[in-house]
Amino acid sequence: MVHISLWYLPLLVLLPLTVLAIIAVWLRRVAHRQSIAEEEPDWSVPALGDEEGGISPLHRWDVRCKIVTILGFSFVIASLGHLGPALTAVGISLIVSVISKVSLARVLFRLLALTGFLGMLVVVMPFTVPTHSGDTLVIFGNTDWLCLNLRGLLLSATISARAVAIALLMEPLFSTAPLPVTLHGLCRLGVPEMASQSVLLSYRYVHVFRHEARRMSAGMQVRGFRKRTDIQTLRTVAYFLGMLFVRSFERTERVFEAMRARGYRGRFPEPVELRMRTMDILMASVWLVAAAVLITYDRILF
Amino acid sequence: MHEIHEGAAFRLTSGSLLFNVRNLFFRYSNDIPALFGVNADISPGDRIALVGKNGSGKTTLIKLLCGLLAPEDGEVRYKGKPLAGQRLEQARLELGVLFQDPDDQLFMHTVIEDAAFGPGQQGKSQKEAQLAAIKALHQVGLEKMAYKAPHNLSFGQKKRAALAGLLAMNPEVLLLDEPTANLDPNQEQVFLDLLKNFTGTLICISHDLIFLYELCDRAVVIDQGRIHHDYTLRELVSQRHTLREHGLDFSFRLVMTPSAPDPDSEVIENTLSQSAPASEKTEDPPIVELHGFQYRYPDGTLALQNVTFSIRKGERISIVGENGAGKSTLLSCLVGLLQGKGDYRFAGKTVTRKECKRLWRRVGIVFQDCADQLFCSSVKEELAFGLHRLGYSRSETEPRVCRALSMVRLEGFEDRVPLHLSGGERKRLALACVLIMEPELLILDEPTAGLDPQGEELLLNILYNLDVTLVLVSHDVFFMKELTRRTLVMHQGKILEDLPIQTFMQDDRLGDLNGLSYMYRLRSSRDIRILQHEHEHSHPHTHLHTHPHRHENLVHEHTHAHEHDHPHRFVHRHPGEEKKHDHMPRRYHHHDHSDHDRESHDHSHENNNTDK
Hints:
The structure holds two protein chains of two kinds. Chain A is mainly alpha-helical. Chain A folds into two domains: 2-176 and 292-299, no CATH class; 193-261. Chain A contains ten helices and three strands, in the order βαααααββααααα. A three-stranded mixed β-sheet of chain A has the order 1-2-3. Chain B is α/β, with parallel strands linked by helices. Chain B has 20 helices and 24 strands. Chains A and B meet through α8 and α9 of A and α3, α4, β16 and α13 of B.
């Protein structure tokens, strides 16, 4: 049990929050700057390279192997119980991100999405974890009811590191193959084709519905609609959502008609012919070894 | 009502039939009857224009032809066999249907994947499908966009990508539903060239008869679910009374000089003097003043650069430019939806961030797709929405709603659901929703998009009578010419020129720069105008001619004159473009034609003389 002055309390709460906020703002700026393309990409060639000429080993990796291996590795990361191995996992994920040449902006946006939740965890958890025997408690002045548990701090840091490591892996998993190819791989792994097609169409039309919603919202704004806490706002938002639903439903019907008109009979054409090669198995083995090392490090060395 | 040409059905033009439609009935699930007893024969190679008012049943017929809908009664036969079961599956791979909204049709993740979808369904290998897709994309000029996601394409590019998806299937038949709606003239020309080169059977729905005139040979007029006429397109466009009867009379568009409005049009009742720039009348500060204005999208794209112009109260201006020139962004800034950098003054007052949020009280905008701004459950509520926001009481609202409805000729529509109105009605309702708020500045974004000619003419008349400062964004040169006096030419986010509409109309350089070349429209309009004035008539007359004849035993030929009484096909300036004339076009009739024999006159004779 460690006793320190009460004025340390706001410092210990505000400092991590401030640091996190600064990091978040910096990340956002970097991500935004990175996301602005200096010139229009060449759309006459595949953005991710074709099967043979992919821009990194992860791009060339068989998608089924990649899904199974990276998801498996993510579960291993999630099972880590100590900060050291979790930080090692973060390192591995960073190396994989660099090797796979994924977009820095997208990685940063992914991390930014986590910062709010992780920030709260880092601040709240040290004060709220149940006290076990042997825990080091920091007590601020005479406030015995509010003590900082160092085990809680360590736990929150470990969880954060695990979350960051897994989030970093998601970009190499999803950005190194086009979505239809990834979904095709999932189908080959046993995911129902209907589910895969639904995801595929949802991803395509989420942009269309977003544009539609934005246009409708603009249409309401130019006639004076402003969100307030009154019944009129509630009614207008209900109209908006209703209309959006009706239009989405009608569009769904039209899309299905267009698909049928072009010969759709329940199946999309296969985007690529999947072939498992020795190199794919070899890469999976490397990941397997890394996972084994992490587990050993976590369970035996600690 | 005129006689319906039911017996005629579609005429056979050559060989075996492609489609054979007999006694087709169809009604939608909400019990609205759509087609009654339609009979149609379509042969390979036919190029058919399917025309009619909004809601006449054109799209329903196309959906029945490609088997997307099943007839309630009657039969559709494709290549001699009923369009059902296995035959239907096969037919779908031979038919290409282009829908109105390209987003409905581009359901894959990249343009090339979408173009390869059809060939893949036809059983082609992945490689073959890819090759077919690349070829089709090359045809439509999108080979450089092959791996782009459809939602990142412009509207015109989406339309072309959708067409590429069909061309990749090498279809025998193309069924097109409003292929050029909302396209700029440049893209329209691309479409026209592509479709002209298509060698298969073509069935095209469009309200744009000038476009159809270039593309199709045959016209089928549908009205209220029935086929009323089936003849050549030349015959259709030349018979103005038929066009008017079916709400298709676009002749008001054929008047190409502002000084000579069409005498038959109601538009003549109004004068352009109403729209004379107020700059000539008033010394007030401009209602809109932009100086060095720019707007950058969040992704860094500079959408508007150094925009400088002003609009005076009562002035009517048009803004033109190719798709993506920045017109819509400029409108969004004017109405306060977007806030750019630079000096923007409204009625002499700088528009700050706070002012921006209040601009809706003074500026009204009608969007290109007016469905985006109609969201209430009844027409009455829709109209009252803006008034309630302005703080009007219920008792003040009622009379204004009635007045607004009457202004846009929608009396009696109070309890109708906006979503169920036709395109033209919706457009007028959106206009009424804006006008009811009495804006100082009215902005119209592509007001004619998707309207049938009758709807266009009605809208034109309504807009003529408005006493409001107007900003019109349109690719429709006729509307621009009729409604505005000044044009801003935009290109790549900049205002290139600010000039009187007449000067713009005569400046080919600006037209080419913006892809606003209207050459084929002018050519077609001229042809159609001639057709509408072409007719036959006869009266006794003499003229010099040669024919064999007998002088006692001698049969010989020489030029001589004697009296005739036979019909002549006759095209003339009748009797001067600016004067009113009311004969039925292409009908045999008599009219005064003095000094026919002696004085030179302007008409062409065709070989239908029956000299004796």
